[in-house]
Design brief:
Blueprint lengths: L4 H14 L4 E7 L11 H15 L3 E7 L8 H9 L4 E5 L2 H13 L9 E5 L19 H10 L3 E6 L5 H16 L12 H22 L7 H6 L4 E5 L2 E5 L9 E6 L6 E8 L4 E4 L35 H35 L9 E3 L22 E3 L25 E5 L2 E7 L9 H12 L8 E7 L2 E7 L6 H6 L3 E3 L1 H20 L13 E3 L5 E3 L5 H4 L14 H5 L6 H4 L10 H17 L14 H11 L8
Parallel strand pairs: 1-2, 1-3, 3-4, 4-5, 12-17
Antiparallel strand pairs: 5-8, 6-7, 8-9, 9-10, 11-13, 13-14, 14-16, 15-16, 18-19
Helix pairs in contact: 1-2, 4-5, 12-16
């Protein structure tokens, strides 16, 4: 007749929905496990609240304590709950509720206005005139502090009927208690639970009379009970509604402390039949901390401040950042220092250096100079066709022919530590080793690519100054193109061009940056018919000196011929760059591509095949003036 625990949960769902609260904490009394008392009424009440909230998708956290164990550390319990909720539902005896609220006031949970507490009163006193915060045994200062603590508390209790019949019933109960039992009843009107007992007897009497009138037996409990469920009758408190489970559709009140009088008064009523929460006209909730409205159930930045960036960086974070930065700087600096010393050590080790005593020339000559073969040097055998699947097995393995001239030249070869190498003399009597040259020699030694001739090393001991490179026995691209006995199909021509592209792409992306002397005679073919680019880098060692009359003879055929692959913008320079430019390499590549396609040498002019390299040079330098822009 007092209503089920399930109804308490329904009341709390309505109140929380009114203020859009979805995160709730619970703190309640329950007997310790193992005690014969079992679970407390507060446990069952808040279990119903928990179940109703869970159905609505609300989040909740709960902690319990045993109020019969004496002192309870409510401060610690509140700190735990406050980590995940601001709306806290309480259920305990009135003295323990007071202890909880005083602990909350000490934790600044009241004055901040950020927290709201609900007290579930299962066996309520007349809260319309009660001051639960007041105690006659406390000092005025203590009572004032208790009153401040209760500013954050709202109470949910059974509604006290406001009818004339109920007031008359209360007077009769007080008279009987005084006259027949010598007991003074202080409450006016009496507690609703007293009326509930009276209405329970009234309901039983109605059901019994109906059963007897229907011809039933007084001992038939099933028949009597069935007439008590799912019905409405008039009781002391007005119309009483029973649901199909035999539970009363109870009414509840929400009470708040008046800020002036300190008395808890009803601000809203929950009606069990309609399941609605209705405000009392002219009354409103006074929120703690002088708030104008209810606080949010979740802080703006979240309970762990994860939703807001920390504007003030703590000192430990600053120290961590500084130390981390220092460590990163030290690591980077150490890496650079290590790299520098490693590079310096590699430079100092001079792994490229060749001892001339280890070089054995095939002709027995140790001058390091290339020697010319006889005028009637070995000729190719039969007419050959080079294709993707053909093998030039009878090409000379040591000859690099220069078919543009009247005599055939052989490059000097030697045996160096068990391998055949090409020996290219350095056109100077003495080599001055400085750091830039040592660094370039080290980088040349590190170059490894399938389409670049590998640099073996260099001998810098006068008078045997020379460069040692990988030996490609099939000769140069110029030799193959100028040999009419060799036919090239389209597939093999494309393969040659593709090999040059891959080699130059690597050079342009490396520290070498550019070739500067790319031409068909500097493209050689190895024993597997793979084209490789040679004579790149080390320009300070490859360029002839001013004293080299043969190389600087402007009347010689070779002087003008080597300029035919040079880009016009470089030819027009008074002092051309020995290393060239990437764009100049592209021009040289175009000339080589033209050679591969027409097989008549650079700048082939149909009908005028006798034009000298010098004539072609001037055509290149001046006739292309309108086609190229010097930058």
């Amino acid at each position: 007749m007092m209503g089920s625990y399930r109804e308490v949960g329904a009341v709390m769902v309505q109140i929380l929905a009114r203020f859009d609260w979805r995160v709730v904490g619970m703190l309640y009394h329950n007997h310790d496990v193992g005690k014969s008392a079992g679970n407390s009424p507060c446990y069952f009440a808040l279990a119903a609240v928990y179940g109703q909230l869970e159905k609505q998708g609300h989040k909740s956290v709960h902690k319990n304590f045993d109020e019969t164990n004496g002192s309870v550390n409510f401060t610690q319990l509140l700190l735990h709950i406050s980590e995940s909720s601001r709306i806290i539902v309480l259920c305990a005896a009135p003295p323990k509720i007071k202890e909880i609220m005083l602990a909350a006031e000490e934790l600044n949970m009241v004055d901040s206005g950020d927290y709201v507490f609900f007290n579930i009163e299962l066996r309520n006193s007349n809260n319309a005139t009660l001051k639960p915060w007041h105690s006659n045994s406390d000092t005025e200062a203590q009572n004032n502090r208790s009153r401040r603590a209760y500013e954050a508390l709202l109470t949910v209790s059974a509604r006290v009927p406001d009818t004339e019949q109920y007031r008359d019933f209360s007077k009769e109960v007080k008279r009987i208690a005084r006259d027949e039992f010598n007991y003074t009843y202080d409450e006016d009107p009496v507690n609703p639970s007293v009326a509930a007992f009276h209405e329970a007897v009234l309901l039983y009497a109605i059901a019994l009379n109906e059963t007897l009138a229907a011809g039933g037996d007084v001992s038939n409990g099933t028949a009597i009970t069935s007439r008590m469920w799912d019905r409405t009758f008039v009781g002391i408190s007005g119309n009483v509604s029973m649901d199909k489970n035999g539970d009363r559709n109870a009414d509840y009140s929400l009470l708040d402390m008046d800020s002036v009088t300190g008395v808890f008064q009803v601000v809203a009523n929950y009606y069990g039949v309609s399941k609605q929460l209705v405000d009392v006209p002219g009354r409103r909730i006074h929120w703690a901390g002088d708030r104008n409205g209810p606080p949010p159930d979740t802080p703006t930045c979240g309970f762990d401040n994860s939703k807001c960036p920390d504007e003030t960086t703590p000192i430990y974070a600053i120290v961590t950042i500084v130390l981390s930065s220092v460590v990163v700087v030290l690591i980077i600096t150490s890496a650079f220092i290590y790299r520098h010393y490693k590079e310096e050590a590699e430079i100092a080790s001079m792994t490229w250096k060749v001892a001339w005593s280890d070089v054995v020339l095939f002709n027995g000559d140790r001058t390091g100079r290339a020697s010319a073969g006889p005028a009637g040097a070995a000729k190719f055998g039969s007419r050959l066709s080079i294709g993707r699947n053909s093998i030039l097995s009878n090409l000379s393995n040591e000859m690099v022919g220069n078919f543009a001239s009247d005599k055939q030249l052989f490059i000097q070869t030697a045996n160096y530590k068990g391998m055949i190498v090409a020996v290219k003399p350095i056109p100077r009597s003495k080599v001055e080793l400085n750091r830039p040259l040592l660094l370039e020699l080290k980088r040349m030694k590190d170059v490894t690519h399938d389409h670049l001739v590998r640099f073996i090393g260099a001998s810098v001991s006068a008078p045997h100054c020379c460069l040692l490179t990988e030996y490609c026995p099939r000769g140069s691209l110029e030799d193959i193109l100028e040999n009419d006995q060799i036919q090239l199909d389209a597939m093999f021509r494309r393969s040659l061009i593709h090999d040059i592209v891959k080699a130059m792409a690597y050079i342009h992306s490396s520290e070498i940056r550019s070739h500067g002397n790319l031409k068909s005679s500097n493209c050689v073919v190895d024993s597997r018919f793979v084209l490789k680019v040679t004579d790149f880098g080390l320009h300070s060692l490859r360029l002839p000196t001013d004293e080299d009359d043969a190389a600087n003879d402007r009347s010689s055929y070779a002087y003008w011929k080597r300029k035919l692959w040079t880009a016009p913008e470089l030819l027009r320079m008074e002092h051309p760059l020995p290393e060239g430019t990437p764009k100049g390499d592209v021009y040289s590549f175009a000339i080589i591509t033209h050679e591969i396609l027409v097989r008549h040498g650079p700048f082939y002019l149909a009908g005028d095949n006798d034009l000298s390299p010098r004539g072609k040079f001037y055509i290149t330098k001046w006739a292309t003036q309108s086609l190229f822009t010097c930058k």
